[in-house]
Amino acid sequence: MRLLKISALVIPMMISASCSKDFIERPSLSGTTTGNYYNNASEVRAATSTLYSGLPWRNYESRAQDAIGDVMSGNMFTYTDVEYLNFSLSSASERVGAAWGAFYKIIGYANVMIKTFEEKKAAGGGADYLDPAIAECHFIRGTLYFYIARTWGDAPIITDPGATALSGNFNIPRYYQKDVLRFALEELQMAEANLPESDEPGRLTKYSAKGMMAKLYLYNKDYANAKTKAQEVINSGKYSLVSDYNGMFTKASMNNNVESLFSIQHQFAVDPWGTGNIKNPDRGASNLRTAEADAWEMYMPSLDLLNEYEFGDLRRKWSVMEHGWTNPNWKPQRANQPKYNEFMANGYKYDTIQPVDDGGAKNAVRANIAKYFAGPGKTYGSESVLGQNSGNNVVLLRYADILLIYAEATLAGAASTTDASALQALNAVRARAGLPARTSVTADNIFHERRVEFAFEGDFWYDIQRQGYAKAKAIIEKQNRGSIEGGANYITTFTEDRMYLPIPAGEIIQDPELAKPAVPYYK
After folding, report:
1. In a 10 Å sphere around its CB, with 0-12 CB exposed, 13-18 middle and 19+ buried, how is residue 486 labelled?
2. How many angstroms separate the most distant Cα atoms in the chain?
3. Which pLDDT value is given to residue 15?
């Protein structure tokens, strides 16, 4: 959806499909008004559940998140989004437009809900259920502007699309990145003030806002506030690291676990299109394609990332399929392929020696991504999969991030630290991965830890970016972005204008102001 078209959004148009699981369930919004609806918590929460649903997030989390966060950062190899691999992308790139459209569409939903709920409250609606709902909208709006500021730098801020439409002035400028980040922070502060201490699994809480604020403060190098907010989450005692790292991403039964602070909520149903998680086929090894599950391995681990893992790091086998990787519960079978069926009869094996037609795996990097690959289908011993869809949530903020934010904020730009609390936070993440504890920590230690901990989660590009241009250039130019067949590939032409994505060409055509220099948002 184009930015300018958001101004036409009204509540009845927001989502036409009805969802039907847990707190996502909600009635149709058609025909609703502030007079005859939003009269109780159930009706209001049903509306805000739309903001968590996979439907509006779809165009971001399906491929744009991978291309921007992991291909561009050097964590993924691909033959499809080569312009992100080589930093040759333009304003016409499909992923650029998809991410922009998804972010501003969801912001449009949040804008309309905030205005609607505030009008309802002014007309006598209950603040006890309207204020937390408004806070949910502020969290979503703040988080998305945080993403927008990191992805595009200078960008538009829209809070009242209706007023924009009535004014007739659609020449919306870009605002300075620092102002977009300030706006995002203010939104998260409002969310923190009015979200509850706890809620049903999957719903936002005060600590979701504190955690996202900690991440934003760290991005701004405001180490004191980043440490404070991360510590508040840690001290709450509400979150912990789960033992089943791979299960966080591949088992629907682990959705909204104690490590998750904020996740996009997915469902698996008879017709899950738009509500299911569709990362499965883009990551799955092609020898796991069955009558139930698609798998075409669009994105693969980069050779550079594979070289990043320390010896003995359990996250490698939890995140990556390589020669010798097995899952005895998965027993994929195919019609009229007896050699394949025999090879897989006693459980799935990732084998780069076996002929491909007989069950072997032999792609450009000799590895595939295990995160968010739910399996070959229920008939074949895995989680339920229907074509491209699985029922796994996409996690956007988890407790491991809070721990590493705390460690980095305690370091606060120093060469190293032996601070006991920083080491405790860092080493908790390392202990789960089966790695020895560090006795001191440097910025490079944390940067490494973040890369392997959050690999394939769409976050590492922002970690590179926040190092600043000079260091980002050095990091990128050291990465091998090639393949086994094609040989090593090193970037030698990374320039400062590649630190942020270009605004989609179609948006500039509709709003020429976006091509002009940014202006202040705060007067």
Report:
1. exposed
2. 71
3. 37
- Cα 11 from Cα 30, distance rounded (Å): 8
| Whole-number Å distance between alpha carbons of 163 and 502 | 27
Q: Would you list the domain boundaries of the chain? A: 1-30+37-194, 278-379, 401-499
DSSP string, 363-404: -SSS-EE-TT---S-GGGTSS--BBTBB-PPEEEEEHHHHHH
Which class does domain 1-30+37-194 fall in? Answer: mainly alpha
Q: How many residues does the chain have?
A: 523
CA gap 355, 484 in Å, rounded: 17
* Nearest CA among 257, 211, 202, 205 for reference residue 231: 211
Name the one residue in this structure whose structure tokens are 């829209």: 158
Question: Which residues of the chain register pLDDT less than 50?
Answer: 1-31
Q: Can you say whether the dihedral through the CA atoms of 92, 95, 98, 103 is positive or negative?
A: negative
Q: 443: how many CB neighbours lie within 10 A of its CB?
A: 17
pLDDT in tens, 179-205: 999 999 999 999 999 999 999 999 999
From 221, 124, 145, select the one nearest 189 (Cα to Cα).
Answer: 145
Residue 82: alpha-carbon gap to chain centroid: 21
Give me the pLDDT at residue 36, please. 82
Q: What is the pLDDT of residue 160?
A: 86
pLDDT score recorded for residue 23 = 28
Instruction: Give me the pLDDT at residue 178, please.
Output: 98
